[in-house]
Amino acid sequence: MDDDKFPENWRFDERQRRSDDLDASKIRRAGPPAVNAPGVVLLLAGTLLLIHAGLQLVGSDTYNRVLLTLAFLPVRFQTLTEFGGQLLPGGEIARVTSFFTYALLHGSWTHLVMNMVWMLAFGSVAARRLGPARFIGLSMLAAGVAAAFSMVMNWGTGAILVGASGAIAGQMAVAVRLIFAHGGTLMSSLRKDLSLVPPEPLLRLFTNRSAVIFIAVWLGVDMLFASSGLLSGARIAWEAHLGGFLTGLLVFGWLDPARRSQART
User: Fold this and answer.
1) Which of 109, 119, 146, 235 could form a Cys-Cys staple with 243, CB 3.0–4.6 A?
2) Among residues 174, 163, 172, which one has the least CA distance to residue 100?
3) pLDDT tier at 166, thresholds 50, 70, 90
């Protein structure tokens, strides 16, 4: 089905709610995202917090082994078999699993907290719309594509990719198509229940002034921090963020339960 032709009379079978006459003014208001976050978002955030806290309690040898096993490293796919004077742990299986497991690790508490804030705000919008299973599926796919983008851009280097921001960028892409639909704004839409809103068509999104400004500012800030070294000891993986965001934009049409319900009718 063409992603830019969203049926006007779509509905959610699970909720048995007709939405033929839906407009933006009828969307019910919700509490602040951080307070009203779906359970899957809170569970994911709690898991990431526990993992990071647990890794602060182990010795440096254990920490380094976990990092080199779960993090995404382009050198894992090259003929080079050593990194930092040690054989890379994880073996062949880590060549597959590290596309996803790197998102469970964070370089610092600041890194983790920043990601959690973005996920509570934008991931909550995506999770409400997609439901837990599709939300996790989207996050994993976005994380995998984000890692692939990072590998292409950092081939031949010793770069180490960690953090859930690639997955969160995919969640944010879904949220953007809902937040800026019907002339919505960022501040007004984040306090509304967007689970029943027809999304902004993909091509029209790039003629939506508010959406374009938001995307340009977000990506511009990413690239500024990446190139300026303003964050000492860390690098913003803008290419991973871009890969995750593009994934969310492109697959939302196939994951959206509203479209799937319409296709069965």
Assistant:
1) 146
2) 163
3) very high
Hey, what domains does the chain have and what are their CATH numbers?
A: 31-258 (1.20.1540.10)
Q: Give the angle subtended at the CA of 168 by the CAs of 160 and 174, to the nearest 5°.
A: 145
Q: How far apart are CA 75 and CA 159, in angstroms?
A: 8
Q: What is the pTM of this model?
A: 0.79
Residues in the chain: 265
Residue type, 151: M
Condensed to tens digits (0 to 9), the pLDDT of residues 119-136 reads: 999 999 999 999 999 999
- Of the candidates 100, 93, 108, which has an alpha carbon nearest to the alpha carbon of residue 71? 100
Residue-wise pLDDT tens digits, 42-88:
999 999 999 999 999 999 999 999 998 999 998 887 754 455 555 67
Nearest to 29 by CA among 164, 192, 141, 253: 192
Give the DSSP letter of residue 17: E
Structure tokens at 192: 């509304």
